[in-house]
Write a structure and sequence with these properties.
The chain has 588 residues and is an alpha/beta fold. Helices cover 30% and strands 17% of the residues. Strands 7-8-6-9-10-5-12 form a seven-stranded mixed sheet, with helices on both faces. It has a five-stranded antiparallel sheet with strand order 13-14-15-16-17, sandwiched between helices. A hairpin with a 4-residue loop joins strand 14 and strand 15.
């Protein structure tokens, strides 16, 4: 496009640019060297363009970007920007514009000027359609350690995924569901997993080959070229082909490494979404694995990528374009193998969907459960209001904002003593475009910035399983004595249901039931009551009652209309009165 431009490369010891070219291609690792960065004068730079821009909020990126734009905050708090310096425009491009750690990309970018999600790209024929299979298998991901980024630690995850049983399951899944695919790309946990799974495929006579970070550059290029040419059907890798790989003929992706990172998962399945009409590719078959033992928060799958609960969906080889019918149509049947694999995978169920579009439709009308997003014990106090309360005088609250582009706001509430008075100080931590981003950002702040014992705030914290304290029971009973809502509504706010044999329980009966709850449940109940959840439940109940009355009237009216239009042999009557039972609140 610009044949007269000069182009240089700034990368490692081999490529050193002058800093004077029209266009310089560089790696951020190289530019982190102050001497290498200094040659690029902000006053002579017209723009900084970042590929894979979702990385830009990381401290390493902000460190070098602050050199070109003083409004980009340097990670070193003692760094003093040169305010008089020119502000070089920063442009970013990314197919996964979010971060698992919740770090706000607004620290670098001011506005998203163009965006297309996966469904739009599929519907507009920029990407191929997707066929989905989720394999439900009895794993135990709850035992897997997490790394500093909140994703599964590779060594710990490998002990669950790289076993003869699981590798056998992956091979059998491919043979059963995807053997007709021409080019299958598989993602594994680590190098040992890659090698063991490759051997498992070869044991069944499948020409599977592998690629790891240890593969030299020449061999890597030859292997990818052979795979592109369709010379063998299965290529297995770990952490090599996640970002930037251009292999359009891939028509099946198997995710054999569970992840809690939306970006990593999106990048893995994205390897198979490119169009390849010259190879006859019509869609890409995505196969992933869902743990049925422990519902570990934030484990990604195609359903959770769209905000759905994979355990509530029946995915039986469905195309994405028809999955949107899920809300309006009964669930599809589940195919359970007659002889499930034992050991770890002692119970296996295939769930297929023919398209991503139909899976997306399942999202409509279904609220994302915050326990699926975070490992912290967030409490839902009312719609779109979530609170994480600590033992100290600190809480973090997520609620709706008035900004349509950033509809969620995360605030820190801290109580301090000043002039003999206890006052509340509120600080806005961030805004977010989705609940998931807000939660991940809040979780990161809780772990790194608040100076509290964040491990006590986990769902799995041992104290939560202990019996209730006398103080907890007393607090809840005090709320009960002062509440203006009915007993059933109050118990719902606490987390209990009104027993069928207890239409009007005494305070003693309520207290006895509360004492059967554990310490964590009562801690959450007190948090809800402090935020007037009982009043919210009462308003919801009233709204539900009004809606039921409205629906009852509509049914009466429709029944009368149907009767008027019915022709039957017999005497004609001037009028007809329907015998309908009166609507009463007790029928609720």
């Amino acid at each position: 496009m610009f044949p007269d431009w000069t182009v240089e490369i700034e990368q490692g010891a081999k490529h050193k640019a002058t800093g004077l070219a029209d266009f310089t291609v560089a790696t951020y690792q190289t530019l982190l060297n102050p001497e290498r960065l200094a040659k690029f004068d902000p006053q002579k730079t017209k723009a900084v363009i970042i590929d894979e821009a979702h990385h830009a909020a990381a401290p390493s990126y902000r460190k070098l970007l602050s050199h070109f734009h003083p409004d980009v905050r340097h990670p070193d708090p003692d760094h003093s920007p040169q305010a008089e310096r020119d502000r070089v425009p920063v442009l970013g491009f990314s197919a996964t514009f979010s971060r698992h750690d919740g770090l706000a990309l607004g620290s670098v970018f001011e506005r998203i000027v163009y965006h297309r999600d996966v469904l739009q790209m599929i519907n507009e024929d920029w990407l191929c359609d997707v066929r989905l299979t989720s394999v439900r298998v009895n794993l135990d991901l709850n035992t897997v350690a997490l790394n500093k980024n909140g994703d599964f630690a590779s060594a710990s995850l490998a002990r669950v995924m790289n076993t003869p049983t699981m590798n056998e399951l992956v091979v059998r899944t491919w043979l059963d569901r995807a053997a007709a695919c021409k080019s299958t790309l598989i993602f594994c946990v680590n190098v040992a997993h890659v090698q063991d799974l490759t051997n498992a495929f070869r044991k069944y006579g499948v020409d599977a080959r592998f690629l790891t970070g240890r593969t030299n550059v020449t061999a890597r290029k030859e292997l990818v070229a052979s795979f592109k040419a369709g010379e063998f059907p299965v290529l297995i890798n770990c952490a090599v082909l996640t970002e930037g790989a251009d292999i359009p003929n891939i028509d099946c992706v198997i995710v054999a490494r569970p992840t809690r990172s939306k970006n990593i998962f999106s990048q893995m399945i994205g390897r198979g979404l490119r169009l390849s009409p010259e190879t006859g590719k019509e869609d890409c078959h995505i196969i992933d694995y869902v743990d049925t033992v422990n519902r570990v928060s934030s484990v990604m799958s195609v359903p959770t990528l769209l905000g759905l609960d994979p355990m509530k969906l029946n995915l039986e080889n469905e195309p994405l374009s028809t999955l949107q019918k899920e809300l309006k149509e009964p669930s599809l049947s589940i195919d359970t193998p007659d002889t499930p694999i034992d050991a770890q995978a002692r119970s296996v169920t295939y769930e297929d969907h023919e398209s991503l579009q139909s899976l997306s439709n399942s999202l409509k009308g279904k609220e994302i459960q915050i326990r699926q997003i975070s490992r912290f014990a967030w409490v839902t106090c009312k719609k779109d209001t979530y609170v994480l309360q600590s033992f100290k005088a600190v809480k973090v609250k997520i609620s709706r904002s008035k900004d349509p582009e950033q509809p969620f706001v995360v605030k820190l509430h801290r109580w301090i003593h000043r002039d003999g008075k206890r006052i509340e100080v509120t600080l806005t931590l961030q805004t977010a475009s989705s609940l998931e981003d807000a939660v991940h950002g809040a979780d990161t702040c809780v772990q790194e910035r608040l100076g509290i014992d964040w491990q006590t705030l986990l769902h799995s914290a041992s104290w939560r399983k202990k019996g209730p304290t006398t103080t907890q029971v007393k607090q809840i009973m005090e709320h009960f004595s002062k509440t203006s809502v009915n007993v059933g509504t109050f118990l719902s706010a606490v987390g209990l249901k009104l027993g069928e044999d207890q239409e009007d329980p005494t305070a003693k009966q309520i207290e006895d039931r509360i004492k059967l709850m554990n310490r964590g449940q009562l801690f959450d109940a007190i948090t809800r009551l402090k935020h007037r959840a009982d009043k919210h439940y009462a308003r919801e109940g009233q709204a539900m009652e009004q809606e039921m009355r409205r629906q009852f009237k509509i049914q009466q009216k429709e029944a009368k209309r149907t009767l008027r239009e019915t022709v039957a042999v017999g005497p004609l009557h001037m009028s007809h009165v329907l015998n309908a039972e009166p609507f009463t609140t007790s029928s609720l």
